[in-house]
Amino acid sequence: MKDVDNLKSVKQEWVCETGSDNQPLSNNQQPNCEYFVDSLFEEAQKVGSKCVSPTEQKKQVDVNIKLWKNGFTVNDDFRSYSDGASQQFLNSIKKGELPSELQGIFDKEEVDVKVEDKKNEICLSTKPVFQPFSGQGHRLGSATPKIVSKAKNIEVENKNNLSAVPLNNLEPITNIQIWLANGKRIVQKFNISHRVSHIKDFIEKYQGSQRSPPFSLATALPVLRLLDETLTLEEADLQNAVIIQRLQKTAAPFRELSEH
């Protein structure tokens, strides 16, 4: 997996660049810009939908992110794609995680992040005005994806329910973050000598044979790619990686949530 702090390599692969006046460069100067916005929007949509009950909405804060052609805005606060902090911020959004910046601002509130695709439009206002606002509402199934996350760090919902994965303490161990097709996130330790097929076996045991339709595994960054189940985690460069479960026979990745 790419290190988001390696700004040079990350920018070449998935950052839209702008000129000194925040105007977009021509298409031949930044051929990957449209792909980056589409990819970020798609991955945020896959991992970020949740139905919130009225009792959970008392301390909810809404954050609106709009992806423009010449940059992006966070509640109307304009930011450049080429800025290092912006790259880390968007990297977290793409993985379905709450950026550390928002965690620091909202320590006790529940944060509802909505991402809107405006890559074909230019943001005319570039004033720095980040003013998060509170709000309520049931928006499951809206046109824009949403990421609902506690400001506190989220780990595993039911650690005691996880099937044990045999580990060799004499070999390197890595944490694999797994986003299930129903929107749940789990974190499990594996040896780097484990194969991708072992991760798939772990997911099947976790979900139960009757609840696990055919699926494949894929990574989200730096680009979406299906994983070869015969490779080891080391061979597939999956140390501390984020892996997505992709169902093969359903068009509703959040089927379980939408039934409630």
From TrEMBL:
One of its GO terms (molecular function) is acetylcholine receptor binding. The keyword Repeat does not apply. GO terms for biological process: autophagosome assembly; cellular response to leukemia inhibitory factor; Golgi organization; membrane fusion; negative regulation of ERAD pathway; nuclear membrane reassembly; positive regulation of protein catabolic process; proteasome-mediated ubiquitin-dependent protein catabolic process. It is found in: Cell projection, Dendrite; Cytoplasm; Endoplasmic reticulum; Golgi apparatus. The keyword Transmembrane does not apply. Residues 60-124 form the SEP domain. Its main location: other. PROSITE patterns: SEP, UBX. PANTHER family: UBX DOMAIN CONTAINING PROTEIN, UBX DOMAIN-CONTAINING PROTEIN 2A. Acts to repress the ubiquitination and subsequent endoplasmic reticulum-associated degradation of CHRNA3 by the STUB1-VCP-UBXN2A complex in cortical neurons. Also acts to promote the translocation of CHRNA3 to the plasma membrane and subsequently increases plasma membrane acetylcholine-gated ion-channel activation. Plays a role in the inhibition of STUB1-mediated TP53 degradation, via its interaction with HSPA9 which acts to inhibit TP53 binding to HSPA9. Positively mediates the ubiquitination and proteosomal degradation of RICTOR, may thereby act as a negative regulator of the mTORC2 pathway. This is UBX domain-containing protein 2A. The gene is UBXN2A.
